[in-house]
Design a protein that fits this description.
By secondary structure, this protein is α/β, with parallel strands linked by helices. The chain has helices spanning 11-16, 18-39, 72-91, 113-122, 142-151, 171-182, 206-212, 220-233, 235-238; strands at residues 2-4, 43-46, 48-49, 94-100, 103-104, 126-130, 136-137, 140-141, 158-163, 169-170, 187-191. The strands form 4 sheets. Strands 1, 2, 3, 4 and 9 form a 5-stranded parallel β-sheet that branches. A two-stranded parallel sheet has the order 5-8.
């Protein structure tokens, strides 16, 4: 089996250079699917994203219309999903596509909000909030995502499934949690909401519960506490990183 977690990620960055998102996410997935066909790998897990749902009503369900992406990133992942379907149909490769919802945790991506918020609060730098901070996100801890992804190896055929926490939290409440575990108050800087930002995200995880016998086990409070603890343990390394 092949589990493809490799991608060019980042919603706003994709608007600056859409070509590299096409090359990495769509063409890169095609390269791996061709390798599966050529060398006989019969199962392919393609990590996808909640960004595909765009402005659908929430909670987002797998059968919602995903043909109206709002960013180049989402479009490139939709293209990868469609290409994977072709290889299931023509070559019988088992395809499972977990759509991840705002993954965070220790050693997370430096461009993601949790990482940036923790670092900026620790260092007394302003925390940038897009819009008014009332928007909600379905932050999902990385251990739960990993568990669901491995469980997806059990399935055959073609499946798209949501992996999310099903418990969204306001961005301002997330900041308050980080403040508590860091032990410092944040300096907030509010700027205009980006047109590609949806108001709220929430995963309908009924299908993943049914097919995978999976559910998230890490409340946001516990996940943030563990993330901040990792941050403190690795702060000497993090200080060497450039700001994003």
């Amino acid at each position: 089996a092949v589990i493809n977690l490799a991608a060019r990620a980042g919603v706003r960055a994709s608007l600056k250079d859409p070509w590299i998102y096409l090359d990495t996410n769509t063409k890169g997935t095609l390269n791996l699917l061709e390798c599966c066909r050529k060398y006989g790998a019969k199962k392919f897990i393609l990590a996808s994203t909640s960004s595909i749902y765009g402005l659908n009503p929430y909670p987002f369900r797998e059968d919602h219309d995903s043909n109206r992406p709002l960013t180049s990133y989402a479009a490139s992942k939709k293209g990868a999903e469609a290409m994977a379907h072709v290889y299931n149909y023509l070559y019988g490769i088992d395809i499972v596509i977990p759509r991840y919802f705002t993954v965070y945790g220790p050693a997370g991506r430096p461009d993601m909000s949790v990482f940036k918020f923790v670092r900026r609060i620790m260092e007394g730098k302003p925390v940038t909030i897009f819009g008014d901070g009332e928007q909600k996100r379905d932050f999902t801890f990385v251990d739960d995502i990993a568990d669901g992804t491995v469980k997806a190896l059990r399935l055959s055929g073609y499946h798209i499934i949501n992996l999310g926490n099903d418990d969204p939290i306001r961005v301002l409440d997330l900041v308050a949690l980080i403040e508590r575990f860091v032990g410092k108050k944040a300096r907030l800087k509010f700027i205009d909401r980006h047109p590609a930002d949806v108001p709220d995200t929430r995963a309908d995880i009924g299908l993943s519960k049914k097919l995978l016998k999976w559910k998230p086990n890490t409340p946001v409070e516990e996940g943030v506490e563990r993330t901040v603890a990792w941050f403190k343990d690795n702060y000497a390394l993090i200080r060497k990183m450039q700001y994003i």
